Amino acid sequence: MFESGLVGGSQNDTASQIDGLVKVESSFTLSALDGLHDSTAITFAVTGKADSVLSKADVEALSTTPQTISTEYGDLVLNGYTLNADGTITIDYEYTLTSSPDNSSGNGESIDDTIKITVNDRDTDSATQDLVIRIMDDVPLATDDANSITEDEVSVAGNVMGGTGAATGDVADTQGADGATVTGVQAGTVAADEHVADGNLATEIAGKYGTLTLNADGTYNYELDSANLVIQGLGPDQTLEDEVFSYTITDSDGDQSTATLTITINGSNDGVIVNVPIDHYVPVDPDGKPTDPTDYTKTDDHVVFESGLADGSSPGAEATKVASSFTLTALDGLAADDAVTITYDGGELTLTKTQVEALGTTPQTISTPYGDLVLNGYSQDTDPSSATFGTITIDYNYTLNTAPTVPGDATNDEFSIVVKDKDIDHDAGTISIKIMDDAPVAVDDVNSVAEDATAPVAGNVFGSADASAGDVEDTQGADGATVTGVQAGTVAADEHVADGNLATEIAGKYGTLILNADGTYSYELDSANLVIQGLGPDQMLEDEVFSYTITDSDGDQSTATLTITINGSNDGVIVNVPIDHDVPVDPDGKPTDSADYIKTDDHVVFESGLTGGSNPDAEATKVVSSFTLTALDGLAADDAVTITYSGGGLTLSKAQVEALGTTPQTISTPYGDLVLNGYSQDTDPSSATFGTI
């Protein structure tokens, strides 16, 4: 008998039952020549069951009245009686297997269903013999299964036993008459004739490219690790077929079978990714210069400075260089002929896959109107465990050679990169080198001249060999600069002087300036100006200011001032008393016309005009006049004017002198009175007598 023919067995169908897998028809012969015992003709003993005893009548009626004897595993039906000519008896029977034995002895072993038959004759003689039905064990059979998933999908499910939930590639396993479940699973394969140890069911099992969860009923779920770049590296026609798991099924009596579940991972078109780092700007001062021209080489990319050029305002090779890299990911493989194309101002460079991979030993140089970009490094991450597996890094250096003559604070030297893979997918990126303009910076200058100087003072507002001590060097920058405009006075903040007035006399407050495009200048003082002459030795004029603007070749401008300081000197004091004029007199010493002198002459009086005189006339005894004094350095505070006369002296303070118009001062001599009764000062700067008292 074969368990495989039972319902649920591995070969269960009607035909198999007919073929004798679970049913057998046969007979046995007995000899009882003295005749069968009437009541206990035949006894059937079955383990675990009560004995079945047939009488002689029961035996002889078997052909019409079959007798059934049930065992632990099946039914024995006695269904035929034949008395043979020689006196022997033939008993026909049919045995049907109804249940599978618990066979835990090993795969494919058998169990015997033994029925002990004892025949008794009428003389109570007996004979016993076993009827043995051998039942062959029905073992499970696991069959290799397959499923598939595309690289960017999340998961796929199935059933290794087949049936409900099974995928197309899940071949139904044979569970056998004893039934079977999955009892163990592991990643990879096991040796031939070995089985997977029990366990790991309903638990994530890590494979090469994802995780499998397999349950006892055969259902499973496989979750793909799409972040794995080995998977992402698959092209649309590529697959991974080495994701294999082994599982073992075990039936109820311990029979086992092992098979594999292979997950095929199908590739897809991944495209191309180009990644160029974003620009980073370095700290700069108000003039656009790096605060530390070495810092950016360590921490920042994509910025260079005109100021670092040889003729720049802060020469330094490091300020003109960038050392950086960009990455590209073409997991399906670079195109053979036009892997990388770089377009720039002035042309285009196309590199083959071979040229790209050789950049580390054979650099490629791109020259633009402003500088050189050198592609000088190639590397690829070949570590499958790395998050950047497959990513290609291209190293490059950029060196600024020429300052752009373009207005503005910065200009970009740009390189457009297009990368293609073998599937003709492509992506683009841009290297943008920001060239910081080196704008000119004009710095305020000063020069000085003494009030009585006759020769012009000279200098150079740019600062140079012919500059004066107070001429601070201007920054012309990499673009070069010249003076483009000059004017007297100042301009508003953030404004510039209009172009013009170069090499031309510009009238200031106290003299004239001539300023040239190259920055050289001369200033000639107007020494006749009494404002200048009024300066004391510790005084100066600092409001002689001229503004000038410098402009570089790309139009950047800066404005500063040139201030001429006029230093005073000791001018001394000048007292001017008009000289006496003689009037016409007669032989007696009398004026020929006593009235004439008061109109035309000073400093003469006549005794004759006194009362009792020969020609009494009050007017002839008076003088009305003035004298002047020039003290451009200022009167002394306490003893400004001292007048000495016959009989004494008078000293006036500065305040008393200035108050004479309202508070006269009288000096009496033995002859007459001198009354100081007026004060005035010329305060008109344009007057030739400016400052005279």
Describe this structure in words.
By secondary structure, the protein is mainly beta. The protein has 5 domains: 3-136, no CATH class; 145-266, Immunoglobulin-like; 273-436, no CATH class; 445-567, Immunoglobulin-like, CATH 2.60.40; 575-676, no CATH class. It is 5% helix and 39% strand. It is built from 8 helices and 40 strands. The chain has a 5-stranded antiparallel β-sheet with strand order 17-19-24-23-22, with no helix packed on it. Strand 37 and strand 38 form a beta hairpin. The termini are far apart. 32% of the residues are buried.
Assembly state (oligomeric): single chain
Q: Work out the radius of gyration.
A: 64 Å
Class by SSE composition: mainly beta
Mean pLDDT level = 85
Label the overall shape: rod-shaped
Strand order of the largest sheet: 17-19-24-23-22
Q: Beta-strand level of the residues, as a percent range?
A: 35-45%
Domain unit count = 5
Number of strands: 40
Level of helix content? under 10%
Query: Unreliable stretches, pLDDT < 50, 5 or more residues?
Result: 14-18, 293-300, 594-601
Number of helices: 8
- Sheet with most strands: 5 strands, antiparallel
Distance between the termini: 155 Å
